[in-house]
Specification:
With about 425 residues, the chain is mainly α. Helices cover about 50% and strands about 5% of the residues. Helix 2 runs antiparallel to helix 4, helix 5 packs antiparallel against helix 6 and helix 8 packs antiparallel against helix 11. The radius of gyration is 21 Å and the shape is globular. The protein starts with a helix and ends with a helix.
């Protein structure tokens, strides 16, 4: 996996440089932006540029998505003055929320760009084993998956670059699965470290999509095919002037980033480890899966105090997209109480939690399983899907009867998913 990460970082940087250079070859020549003449596409020569560019669009959208779903599910507090961002913290996101439209545009664009790349490469010499098609299928699949886990309903681009109708979450899961299945088959055929990594990440995505759609048997079966030690990480680059697109989007809003407004809430500081106090988090009494520090200043809003996450300490910190550990949680949730308790106590040991969990009450076991999963995948974009599926079993989510941590801003609402944005409604004749 380390070889894969280094390769991908270098390639992402190289693609950026190639595209920038090409754009500057003749600035007096007028071109139509964002439109590629299909007749000029050479799948062999252009495929890697297209697919890596599409994957980087998803990578950029991923950090942005994680940040907003963390605010929405109280994994982080909103230390920002923007009313549009505080709507996420209050779980009261309006269709005309401009920030919300930005999150939507980034994710939906990643699906569209990936699908367009696949269509452009279909006429290549061997589309059944083209690593570029596998890569674009993976980013398209995860884009559709995250949209389905987060929006109450949403459209996807249709073939021929046509806007589609609103799809229910279960339909979006099916769209994601079809893309993951292609990423898996083509990745396996392409082989090599990257092809196998793409196939593994796609397999995790298939399990996750089945789980969200309520197909526990299919989810468990798919998850059990993933190696326990598998991990797929999205790389990021610290390139001055391009940090917004190439850098880690969670660090962007953390202490030292461009807009310091992602605040670690009290519950997470209590359960986690302060890196100010411990050089080696594994030797601390708290849970080393949740790392934070005191920035010793207010965040952007000047109201809260800036306690910053340290899971991603810099612009170039990678973010995990898929793993065997996630697959084990998916399989356990669909399995027996005994299997769930075994995984719970294994993970409690990782988090320095004593004593062992010993309840056999199904609701208490599910709540503890969700707690351990959230600790393992804090700030990794897992929580909103779990919250939609399991509701109150997911811990530390502010409810409609709770007071918002900035009372002057407004009250908590009761949303569990996001609405279609007004900009999409205005632009899409199917809505």
């Amino acid at each position: 996996m380390r070889r894969f990460i280094r390769f991908a970082v270098g390639a992402a940087f190289a693609v950026t440089m190639v595209m920038t250079t090409a754009a500057c070859e003749s600035f007096v020549e007028v071109r139509t932006p964002n439109i590629i003449d299909a007749g000029t596409v050479d799948p062999a020569a252009d495929g890697e540029t297209f697919s890596r560019s599409a994957f980087q669009t998803f990578a950029s959208a991923y950090g942005d998505y994680i940040r907003h779903q963390a605010w929405f599910t109280t994994s982080a507090w909103v230390g920002d003055t923007f009313p549009t961002r505080n709507e996420f913290g209050r779980r009261d996101v309006r269709p005309n929320n401009g920030t919300h439209n930005g999150v939507w545009f980034a994710l939906s664009r990643s699906v569209s760009q990936s699908d367009q790349a696949i269509e452009a490469l279909e006429d290549g010499p061997d589309p059944g084993s083209d690593i570029n098609i596998a890569r674009a299928s993976l980013s398209s699949g995860y884009g559709a998956l995250l949209i389905g886990e987060s929006w109450c309903s949403a459209p996807l681009r249709q073939p021929g670059n046509q806007p589609g109708p609103a799809l229910a979450p279960a339909q979006l899961m099916d769209e994601a699965i079809s893309r993951f299945q292609r990423a898996r088959s083509v990745g396996q055929a392409a082989g090599g470290s990257e092809g196998n990594a793409i196939a593994g990440a796609a397999q995790v995505g298939i399990a996750r999509a089945h789980q969200f759609a309520g197909r526990s048997g299919e989810a468990r079966s798919a998850a059990q095919q993933v190696d326990a030690d598998f991990e797929f990480w999205i790389p990021y680059v610290d390139q001055l002037g391009e940090r917004g697109r190439l850098g880690n989007g969670i660090f962007l809003f953390s202490a030292g980033g461009s807009r310091e407004s992602l605040v670690v809430p009290p519950a997470y500081r209590e359960m986690g480890v302060s890196t100010d106090e411990f050089d080696d988090p594994t030797e601390a009494p708290g849970d080393p899966r949740i790392l934070w520090r005191d920035a010793e200043r207010p965040p952007q809003d000047g109201t809260l105090h800036m306690y910053s996450q340290m899971k991603y300490p810099g612009w170039a910190s990678p973010i995990r997209l898929a793993s065997g550990l996630e697959a084990r949680y998916i399989a356990a949730e669909a399995g027996s109480i005994g299997e769930q308790i075994a995984l719970i106590n294994e993970r409690r040991a990782v988090g320095n939690q004593e004593p062992n969990f010993d309840s056999s009450d199904p609701q208490e076991v599910l709540a503890e399983l969700m707690d351990q999963k959230h600790r393992d995948f804090w700030l990794e974009g897992q929580r909103l899907g779990d919250f939609q599926r399991n509701g109150v079993a997911v811990p530390n989510v502010l409810g409609p009867d709770d007071e918002y941590y900035k009372p002057a801003v407004g009250n908590m609402s009761n949303q569990t998913c996001w609405p279609i944005t007004q900009a999409e409604i205005d632009a899409n004749p199917n809505l």
